Amino acid sequence: MALVTHHWHAYDPWTGPHQFFGREHDPERRPGPSSGDIATAAFIRASSPPLENGHYLLRRDQTARERTWTDVQGALDWLTDRYAQHPPDPALSHVSQAARLEHSRAGLEGGRDAIWHYTANLSANRVVVYAVICCPHRHHTKTPCPLPPN
């Protein structure tokens, strides 16, 4: 059996209303049926969180060298930095940053993604979502790497 080596790509925070996660927005959060159709082009340009984590890898223009790592610690440092820039609403923060990091480390080391999604400001009805996606992706095996690491 061939050894699969993983690396990780991070995707910048999206902030928006809680209502965006309703079913009526599902078509905006997935690519269309083919690579060249209008729905896929719109999906690729969007910054909103996709329905399936592996679809982040289709957003090649949103993948950056400075957010691509071959070591988990780089990804965890990036998550920590984004958390500081976009802190959760203290009244609703039920999971500590340390617990998030511990869970994310275990997941990333196991070839899974780390998605941090929480309410950033309840009074403004704002959530924040940012992601570190494992590549190659375990559920989207035919999706090519958008930016191979050096």
Features:
single chain; 150 residues; alpha+beta; 4-stranded antiparallel β-sheet; 3 helices
Overview of this structure, please?
- The radius of gyration is 16 Å and the shape is globular.
- The longest helix is centred in the middle third of the chain and has 14 residues, at 72-85.
- The two termini are 24 Å apart.
- By secondary structure, it is an alpha+beta fold.
- It is built from 3 helices and 4 strands, in the order βαβααββ.
- Helix 2 (72-85) runs antiparallel to helix 3 (97-109).
- The chain has one domain.
List the helices and strands and how they pair.
Blueprint: E1 7-17, H1 38-45, E2 68-69, H2 72-85, H3 97-109, E3 114-121, E4 126-135
Antiparallel strand pairs: 1-2, 1-4, 3-4
Helix pairs in contact: 2-3
Summarize the structure.
The chain has 150 residues and is α+β, with helices and mostly antiparallel strands.
- Estimated helix fraction: 10-25%
- Number of helices, where a helix is a run of at least 4 consecutive DSSP H or I residues: 3
Secondary-structure content class: alpha+beta
Question: Strand-and-helix sequence, N→C?
Answer: EHEHHEE
Kindly report the spatial arrangement of strands forming the biggest sheet: 2-1-4-3
How far is the N terminus from the C terminus? Answer: 24 Å
Query: Which shape, going by the Cα principal axes?
Result: globular
Instruction: Detail the poorly predicted runs.
Output: none
Gyration radius, in Å: 16 Å
Mean pLDDT: 93
Total number of distinct structural domains: 1
Most strands sheet: 4 strands, antiparallel
Percentage of residues in DSSP E strands: 15-25%
Strand tally is 4
